Amino acid sequence: MKRLTLHRAVCLILAVTLLPASASASGPTLEQRIAAQRARAAQLQMRLHAKRVELGEATLHYQDLQQQLSQTNAAIGAVNGRIDSLAAQQASTQRRIAWNAIQLDAARRSLLLHDEMLKRRLVDIYEYGDLSYVDALIAARSFSEFVERWEDLRLLIAANQRAVRARKAAEARVATVEAELEGTRLQLQQEEQAQDEARSQLGSLADERRNLVTLAGVRRRSVATQVAEMEDLSAAEEASLEGLILERERELESQQRAAGIAGGGDHSGAAGMFSWPVTGTITSPFGWRSNPFGGAPEFHQGLDIAAPSGTTVTAAAGGTVIMAQWYGGYGNYILIDHGGGYSTGYGHLSAIYVSTGQSVQRGQAIGAVGSTGQSTGPHLHFEVRIAGKPVDPAPRLH
Asked: Where in the sequence is the domain holding 248, given as residue range(s)?
């Protein structure tokens, strides 16, 4: 039995040894192709991460400009409200002007009346002479007539005094009304100028900010298109990498069959059922979602499981580590091949405990939860792939 096992092992070693030699004669070995493909995928992921950062910045700039435009529009609304209020004040002022004009006309008529009365008094004095009040009293023929003339003179003097005071009051009223009208007209003129200036300035500012928003929107859409194209290209590169890995698995299985050795290792994930890699709450399921960094909606290729930073992450099934390195937006990333076309990915790790090519068992510690790469907080991004294509991990976890 030991001899048979030794014979099989020797055959396997010979098969593995001869494969690179034959491959090198015709071109790069499969391992070299996998390494080159992995490097291309990692480089593309780094470029994609940078482009996503650019998209986030473009989105923030666009939102900031939109907010500024909204503030300008709000200011325009406030100015329009003040203009409406001033229009009501103008209407009230116009009514006051009309009333003041009536008062002014009455004051002018009163002034004209008093002027006419004074003119007639002067004419009488010119025509009949300026009889003094004493002469009028002496001319009385009786005491009763004297008393009557005294009372008439007293009333005349009082009337003349009232006329003089009324004329002065009319003059003062005319001057006051004219000053009020001039002040009101000047105030209305200043308010109208201020309204026109405010409307003109805000209108120009709004037009400028609308143009900036339009340009920022064009740039954001352009970057979003580039991100989508790079995401498609990244998915194609990852699919090519998965294809090369599957090809290597098939060759190894073929070598094992040729050597008469059954495949070993714990590849319990090949059945398509996996254990939870970390305990926590699912904060983002598989499928389309709003982009947490802004921009167009994106397709989320796995589950985001929230957990404290440093929490141990375990292998969801036994297999071989085919990637354990920084991987663009995924940050520190581990990819495990479980055979049968199944693989699992673990992203945003704060620490990696395994290395490429290492065999792992289900439940083995492989890393720690973190927030590396393009992440909004500590969590594990967990993926399940079949033949390189991501599928929903949720129904496959137990």
From this structure: 29-263
Token reading at 102: 């009536």
120 phi and psi angles, rounded to 5 deg: -65, -40
Q: What are residue 311's phi and psi, to 5 degrees?
A: -60, 135
Examine the domain organization and report whether 272 and 216 are in the same domain. Answer: no
DSSP assignments along 185-202, one per residue: HHHHHHHHHHHHHHHHHH
Please provide the DSSP assignment of 330-377 as one string: G-EEEEEEEETTEEEEEEEESEE---TT-EE-TT-EEEE-B--SS-SS
Which residues are bridge partners to 345 per DSSP?
335, 383
Give the separation between CA 73 and CA 66, rounded to whole angstroms.
10
Residue 239 confidence (pLDDT) above 90: no
Task: Give the global pTM.
Answer: 0.46
* Sequence-ordered list of residues with C-beta below 8 angstroms from that of 21, at least 6 positions apart, any chain: none
Tokens standing for residue 146: 């004297």
Q: Are 364 and 345 in contact (CB under 8 A)?
A: no
Rg, C-alpha atoms of the chain: 50
Closest to 5 measured CA to CA, from 319, 339, 13: 13
**Given 231, 263, 295, which residue is the final one in a domain?**
263
Give the HSE-up count for residue 189: Cα atoms under 13 Å, Cβ half-sphere: 6
Question: Which residues on neighbouring strands pair with residue 227, listed in sequence order?
Answer: none
3-class state of residue 261 by DSSP:
coil
- Give the pLDDT confidence of 6-36 residue by residue, as tens digits: 334 333 333 333 344 444 445 788 878 877 8
Question: Torsion over CA of 36, 41, 46 and 52, rounded to 10 degrees?
Answer: 160
Average pLDDT, integer, range 201-210: 84
Per the domain annotation, does 5 fall within a domain? no
The token duo for 126 is 């010119």
